[in-house]
Specification:
This is AB12B protein. By secondary structure, the chain is α+β, with helices and mostly antiparallel strands. Helices cover 35% and strands 20% of the residues. The chain has four helices and two strands; from the N terminus they run ααββαα. The protein is elongated, with a radius of gyration of 20 Å.
Length: 83
């Protein structure tokens, strides 16, 4: 019975395996990762006209003390340095 349903409706399998229709964890704002993850900020990169990609940047633990309290500009510069 279940294999027949999966053969008839393969989309059901992907929905129930990945559960991508559920937003978990609940009530988390992924635009502000710094609320849950230390030394992490949300950035947006424009890859081509009309396309923006959101990324999280987390500095290594060795620079954690240095990153504490810094603004977004500091994190953007930290992406480009050699540390």
């Amino acid at each position: 019975s279940v294999p027949i349903l999966i053969r008839l409706f393969p989309v059901l399998l992907t929905k129930f395996v990945y559960l991508n229709f559920l937003a978990f964890p609940f009530f988390v704002d992924f635009r502000q990762p710094e609320l849950l993850l230390n030394n992490t900020i949300n950035l947006y990169l424009t890859t081509e006209p009309g396309v923006m990609v959101g990324i999280w940047h987390t500095v290594p633990g060795s620079r954690g003390d240095e990153a504490r309290g810094k603004d977004q500009k500091w994190y953007e510069e930290a992406l480009g340095d050699d540390h």
